[in-house]
Amino acid sequence: MQITIFSFLSALLWSSLLIVAIYLLRHTRFKQHFGVLSMVLLYLFCVVRLFLPLEFPHTLIAADGVIYPHIYNLLTRERDMLANKPLVLILCAAWLLGFCELLFRYIRQYRKAIYSVEHYAGQWDERTNALLEQVQQQTGRKITVQGYTALNIESAFGMGVLHKRIILPDRDYTETELRYVLLHEYTHFLNHDTVVKLLVTLFCMIFWWNPVVYLLQKDLEQTLEIKCDLSVARTLDEQERAAYLRTILSLMKQTGRKHRLPFMATALFQADAQTEIKERFVMVMTYSAQRHRHTASAMLTGVFALLLIASYAVLPQPKFEAPSSNEPQAVDFDNANAYVLYDHNGFCWLCINGNAPIQISTEKAEFYQQTGLEIIKE
């Protein structure tokens, strides 16, 4: 078991193809036949494949003499302008610098958001705290959540992994609206969605140069929202689900279209995500039918699991032609199959049966004569 340049390239290719396939599948009419959990699992397959670019002892090597030799030569070619370093080392250095810059930017923005909440946002009133207790009783699970009200935001959101916070805008909610807002954000915490978002963000930071990972990030965030909506729908009856959707729609109409959320935050909606909201509404309204689609989800997961395993079975590698050489091959000779020839121009030649004559010096000719080789003069 080892990791090579070509096992990494194979992992990059397979994971990118799987991500694109899942994304396209999610945007076809077949999407309603597959469960949300199966989609999350499929994206997990893609992440695992990219993080484990392994070549196993029994992996079948597929020799390629067209594309891969050029890739190998490009990556291992030395660059004079950078102290004769191979291109692969230059790319790794750029990769690391990009990751460090994104990580630093993320930490700075996250700390800034936490500082703003803790220093400029106010605590919840008794009414909001009482509604949160009702939500905890409704879900049957209680976790510690800190509540804040902020002036400079338009939409409620949740943030934090270890210290969970729900931040509400300073506005007048009806009791029904506030209850569903709290239920939605609290359910995100119960589903550990902030943890998933953190891991996905780190994944995108590591592979920042691959545009396909941002496709995964966007689609997975929508999948998490649908998963949260379905978890909420599980605790509601049919009339309450309709009221829940009306709350989302009402709050969207009251919110600016370009409000921004902090990094890794979960929100009831994104104001400019009309298509995504429509998909969420359809999933909630057809919640009862969703529970009876386990067969299609299991089949889809099984197919992608087989593809994941098959991706380790074959590994393309470059095939190089053996270099041609004009150098004479080593041949054993003695007085039975060789002789020394003096031509009429005075040059000496070592003649070995089945081989072209080799010009030698007079000293070597005399040496070979002493060892017993026959001397022939033209």
Give me a quick take on this structure.
The protein has 378 residues and is an alpha/beta fold. Helices cover 54% and strands 13% of the residues.
Features:
single chain, 378 residues, alpha/beta, 3 domains, 5-stranded mixed sheet, 4-stranded mixed sheet, 13 helices, 54% helix
Radius of gyration: 35 Å
Beta-strand residue percentage? 5-15%
Number of strands: 13
Uncertain stretches:
none
Helix coverage percent: 40-55%
Distance between the termini: 65 Å
Structural class estimated from helices and strands: alpha/beta
For the biggest β-sheet, the strand order reads: 4-5-7-6-8
Listing every helix as H and every strand as E from the N terminus to the C terminus, the arrangement reads HHEHEEHEHEEEHHHHEHHHEEEEHE
The global form is elongated
Number of helices: 13
The domain tally reads 3
Summed over residues and divided by their number, the pLDDT gives a mean of 80
Sheet with the most strands, sense and barrel status: 5 strands, mixed
